[in-house]
Write a structure and sequence with these properties.
The chain is an alpha/beta fold and 335 residues long. Helices cover 24% and strands 27% of the residues.
């Protein structure tokens, strides 16, 4: 008797610097504590480029993608709170140990033995994915599958970065891509002034920023018309750190939101003096996710997206790398 094996389609990265290639794999089975999800959409994040380029250590071969939206089709043992057909989102932090000092103190984003979706465990450039149920979030019904996908990283990391900026009233966003276009809307809804910094000459990007409520938009080598209370750096360019320090007022904070950044060049102590601070964002906590989706719904966030078919994942990555996407690129297996 021949047993039929269910298969899934995916785009696989075999190693750093290699293009993704289409593969078929046996359908994975959820282990205890896991969900099997039929992927409806998966956002394309700049972090995926760092994985593809080998700038972030990954377990190759790997299926990239960590902004997953899909529906539960199978539930592993020891899972509570989910039912078949539930729509869920899966973020970058896909698993934490639960026992290290960071996990025990509510700082699971700093876990000593984490697993990352699309990096150390297979992600969402596929038709089906397995995820730790503890790191799956319900998606508000007000967002479509494609619109919700960028919220799972661009939105979540932007939200954590905004929270680390404190109660700053005047905020600068360096790099106006997927994350900035979401968090600019949140900050505007919170009655803050948002100043957008793009690549020099990116007139279209600056116009896009202003259309989302930014008070000012200019090039990253320009100074804002007024000193900033805080700056968030989404562009992975270390040279922007000294530039942002010069743009913030005394007591201001510069938040580096990327998981990878080029080296920060030397700068005079005088640019840091005046109780200015620099901090980084590392991953996210489940509390970040729960609070962000509540805010995103209340603020009526609208994501701007460009969909790509699963087999077009290489083109999607290239478009993100070249800054050709307005808002966020999203892989849609059903296209």
């Amino acid at each position: 008797m021949q047993i039929s094996i269910m298969m899934m389609r995916a785009m696989q990265l075999d190693g750093p610097g290699k293009p993704l290639r289409p593969v078929e794999r046996p359908m994975p089975e959820p282990k205890p504590g896991e969900l099997l999800i039929e992927v409806a959409a998966c956002g394309v994040c700049r972090t995926d480029l760092h994985v593809a380029d080998g700038e972030i250590p990954a377990h190759y071969p790997i299926i990239p993608g960590h902004e997953i939206v899909g529906r539960v089709v199978e539930i592993g043992s020891d899972v509570e709170g989910f039912a078949l057909g539930d729509r869920v989102g899966v973020p970058w932090l896909g698993h934490s140990c639960g026992v290290c000092p960071y996990c025990r103190s509510g700082r699971e984003n700093l876990c000593d033995e984490p697993e990352f979706t699309g990096c150390t465990r297979d992600g969402g450039y596929t038709t089906h994915a397995v995820a730790d149920a503890r790191y799956c979030f319900p998606i508000p019904t007000s967002f479509s599958d494609i619109a919700a996908a960028p919220l799972l990283c661009a939105g979540l990391i932007g939200w954590r970065a905004l929270r680390l900026a404190g109660d700053a009233q005047r905020i600068g966003l360096y790099g106006f891509g997927a994350a900035a276009h979401i968090i600019a809307q949140v900050a505007h809804w919170q009655k803050r002034e948002v100043y957008a910094f793009t690549k020099p000459g990116d007139v279209a990007g600056q116009a896009f920023a202003r259309s989302l409520g930014c008070a000012w938009a200019g090039a990253s080598d320009e100074m804002p018309p007024l000193p900033l209370d805080a700056a968030i750096l989404f562009a992975p360019v270390g040279a922007l750190v000294p530039a942002a320090l010069k743009a913030v007022a005394k007591g201001g904070r510069v938040v580096c939101a990327g998981i990878h950044m080029s080296d920060i060049p030397a700068f005079p102590y005088a640019d840091l003096w005046g109780e200015r601070t620099i901090c980084s964002v590392a991953n996210l906590t489940r509390e970040d996710g729960n609070s962000f989706f509540e805010i995103a719904e209340r603020a009526k966030i609208e994501t701007t997206t460009q969909p790509f078919g699963l087999e077009d994942a290489n083109a999607a990555l290239a478009a993100v790398r070249n800054g050709e996407v307005k808002g966020a690129a999203v892989i849609v297996p059903g296209l």
